[in-house]
Design goal:
2 copies of one chain form a homodimer.
Chain A: H1 8-16, H2 22-28, H3 35-47, H4 53-62, H5 69-82, E1 85-86, E2 95-96, E3 105-111, E4 117-120, H6 123-135, E5 139-150, H7 152-156
Parallel strand pairs in A: 3-5
Antiparallel strand pairs in A: 3-4
Helix pairs in contact in A: 4-5
Chain A binds a DNA duplex (30 and 30 nucleotides) through helix 3 and helix 5.
Chain lengths: 157, 157
Amino acid sequence: MQNICINRGTLYDILYMHSFDSTGFFRSVGLRDTLPRRLVITALTEIGRPVSHKEVHEWLKKKRTAINLVTVYRILEKFETLGLVHKQPTSGGFVLCALSAEHGHHGFLSCQQCGTVEEFADPDLCRVENAIARKAGFIPASHLSEIVGICSTCHAA
Amino acid sequence: MQNICINRGTLYDILYMHSFDSTGFFRSVGLRDTLPRRLVITALTEIGRPVSHKEVHEWLKKKRTAINLVTVYRILEKFETLGLVHKQPTSGGFVLCALSAEHGHHGFLSCQQCGTVEEFADPDLCRVENAIARKAGFIPASHLSEIVGICSTCHAA
DNA sequence: AAAATTAATGCAAAATATTTGCATTAACAG
DNA sequence: CTGTTAATGCAAATATTTTGCATTAATTTT
């Protein structure tokens, strides 16, 4: 159930709420089509920026469509395994930085298996990211890149 | 105090513990050179992977150099403002993904001011990241890029 | 269309994690 | 050494996340 891929067209429909066939969608991923789940999708769509569980919960309360906070947790957890929703994957912990923050860029290679994290700095990457930002009319302050995978030691073993 | 830049050579010294002049280092950033601070640096250096506050605390306890968990919080918070330590910057919240996870890549442009997050997919970026991974003998499973800055709307206003 | 099945929800409470206030300790300037 | 004050420790308040179980409601079966 972890790596189910979701059809991009469907996601587009969800985002813009045109003709979103929730029953069909949920059925296709083996879940029931429930009101709380539709409401969470609505909330995320309308809010349109990263939010905490609590914020989703409160947004719904304001709309008088409150559902239990515990349910919000469970729904988002499930959505995450579907790739429908995204949460920063790292342990969220601290790493001592090998490279100064002066570049405003932090790059990490983190191994899923042994948990090792290597830090890197790559001028190409910075350049590409700056270009992306510029194209979007964005003034970049800092970059963060994380590449999750299997390190050489682990896949040798 | 937010954007103090730390000398890269000093960080290298810290990491490898050769001739680390803790007093000089802390003084240069306007902090006192205390045992708990030196211990936290040692812990992060020795552990060498992302850790939670609790893990740092427990590691120190095992070494019989326990310091209070609250202190660990405060030290890491301070270190973070120095850029000595790094923690994923996003609110850590959820975003509804516009793009399917099938590429294994998530790119976000997130505005510091208004909190808006735009999602992007960029083949160049993927290519560069794959190259970085390959060079390090890494088998990449997924990428995450976040560009933090000011969006066009905000800097127009 | 009703009954049966069982996933999903809500509620209460437990477990964790984080923050705050204040008294005490210890860095360090003079 | 002494005084000053940043930094720490402790206790307790808050906030966040998880768990167990009874109930509800979506879907399947008859």
